[in-house]
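name: query_chain
kind: protein
chains: 1
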Amino acid sequence: MSSSFPILAREQYALVCNAREVLLAYCDRLPPEALLTGQPEVGWGGSIRNLLVHNANAYRYWIGMQALGRSLEFIHEADVPDLSAVRDLYRDVDRMMEAFLEAYGEEGQSEVEVHRKGRTYSVDALAVFTHVITHEFHHKGQILTLGRRLGHIPVDTDILRDTDPDQDNP
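structure:
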């Protein structure tokens, strides 16, 4: 793995956090019931809240449990009643990502030993990092689609987006 991985990964994760904040600001403007309205064909309970929790659980699994070897429980959607609790969950994710980037930085490990489905194997830390952030963006698209189906115009949450001050994006 390139020695520039931790520098680039920190910069890239900052971009991910910025795009996530745009999404959460959009969710702040939705009526509370919109966060919990399920559309089962989407999966993971089909609600915006459930998708946000599912995505945080993916970070907890791959970064916290697999890469950092922490003993963590999955968060149940019902234990995350509102957007404030979602934000708390993502603050924990951010702390885990910081620990991951420290552990797999310049002089750190480059391979994550994965224990899954009765097997143990190694995965490149860059692949784990890429997996969790692309997973987040996949579900971000679903969240915006759910919002649109509920009658709420989605905002641009791309990394590169229109920064016109007249737009609703922070």
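note: The CA atoms of residues 110 and 125 lie 5 Å apart.
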